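Hey,
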Amino acid sequence: MPRQKQKVQSNIVVFPASSGQSRTEARPPRSLPQTGNVVAFQDDRIPATGTTNGGKVHRRMRSRFQKGCLQKVGDWIVVRFRIDTPQGRELKAEKVCPASGPDLLTKAEQKRRAAEIIEAAGVNKTEQIRQTTQSVTFAQQAERFLEQSRTRRRKPISPATYDGWRNCLDKWLIPNIGETMLQDVNNGTLKTLVTKMVNEGLSAKSVNTYAGLVKLVVASAIDANGEELYPRRWNHDFVEMPLITNQHRPTFTSDQVSGILTKTTGQR
């Protein structure tokens, strides 16, 4: 016999008689804190509605360009979105219209109203994001970049690379330029850092590798369209980046080559 689905009537779950649970259970009404037109959510999540088993579905907003997500919360239709702040991205939800009654908007009207709310909030404006990141230090952006590089879907870094970058940040970059505002990290900043690393005896390869990580962190600050907020034309001549020379390459003498060829004769 095919399994019968539970019927959902508003906040009441009705169990079919064949399920052996001939009773009804009332769901407790949602009680959400509200401030004006904004619905506040603790724990950075918004409860989803419409599930037949009474469970909750939690979804995270995309980290970049946003269109918002319409949802029924209590007696209201709200649009949820994230907004950038100096403390990070915060979850917001603003009322669009009542969920029932004469003031209920059509789906198309709800979408238009949601778009107006998001545009008014300046969520996707490059200037808004730029103003937010102006209060971000190199150390803060470096931590974000490192975590995103480890957890991203497209080409995440390996554990070995993560450990290497972590060591570089902790030992060299954060102690020297960590408190510098991200927007102020430029060729002059890099030149000072390179000079110090060279004076401390780091190899040319290590200096180039660590400087490359500085460039990656600065380039990781992007706007809603994926464009760099602080594009740089790095000048290695001005920075006095050391050249990598005399790298160790394995070599063989003529006798060693002859020995290798003798051993491989007849092998397929």
